[in-house]
Amino acid sequence: MESLFNPLIGGLLIGLTATIYLLSTGKVIGISGILSQLLFNKGRLLPFLFIAGLIIGGSAYGTLTEQTVAFPETRSPWLLILSGLLVGYGTRLGGGCTSGHGVCGISRLSPRSIVATLTFMAAAIITVSILN
Amino acid sequence: MFAAITFISGLLFGLGLAFSEMTNPAVVIGFLNIFGDWNPSLIIVMASAIAVGMLGYAIKNKKVKPWIAKEWQVPSLKHIDAKLLIGSSLFGIGWGLSGYCPGPGLTALVNNPSEGMYFIAALVIGSGIHFIQMRVTQK
Fold this sequence. Notes:
The complex is a heterodimer of chains A (about 130) and B (about 140). Chain A has about 130 residues and is mainly alpha-helical. Chain A has one domain (about 1-130). Helix content of chain A is about 75%, strand content about 0%. Chain A has six helices and no strands. The two termini of chain A are about 30 Å apart. Chain B has about 140 residues and is mainly α. Chain B has one domain. Chain B is about 70% helix and about 0% strand. Chain B is built from six helices and no strands. Chain B has helices at about 1-20, 25-30, 40-60, 80-100, 100-110, 115-139. In chain B, helix 5 packs antiparallel against helix 6 (about 115-139). The model of chain B has no long low-confidence stretch (mean pLDDT about 95). Chains A and B meet through helix 1, helix 2, helix 3, helix 4 and helix 5 of A and helix 1, helix 2, helix 3, helix 4 and helix 5 of B. Chain B: Keywords: Membrane, Transmembrane, Transmembrane helix. Chain B: It holds the Pfam family DUF6691. Chain B: InterPro entries: DUF6691.
């Protein structure tokens, strides 16, 4: 049961946050979009506050929250750089990532987001199965 | 008020990633590894997040405007085009390579900096390439 409890709490928190943010600010949570606003747009205070909060909240991992699986051994910088380039460019070209398309988009049954999510899930599954 | 809600949203979202263990790329890769030693826990995360999110949109649809903003800014794009498909495919390949999508990648700056630094530096460059490309093609 414990193995179900944390993912459930995590998912509920993510959904609840998306809802609070939507109903109060009128906007959708998309991490790739918020990050690119921080980098390239004027009016950087709000995206900065969001990203700072995200990093602080995420750092609770393993201290406030349970860690059931060990971190991977530190991997090659080149793998991480290639991955980062693809994630950075791909999420901007495709207009969203796991949060914007995956959670918020599917929640409002956006056909674009459903197609995007199926596409990046399939690409990621194929990539992992090739690497293994 | 706007600033406080934005910061708290980021904080709660980060906590959600921490509880769901999406901050650990080994968990994410385990979830994507459906043909191997599959770890299905992220299905629970996605399903519960989307269930609550749907409730949120049901409430939104009954409201004229948001609590502290003038109007809704929910994306209204409908068309499915090559950019969406190619962008999502590239993102998926990158996600599968490391197990980091943007949110967990940002948390890795603290949780696992020897990986997070490289990933986020490259992510910023990748987003920047797209930004420059947009500016050039719009002129």
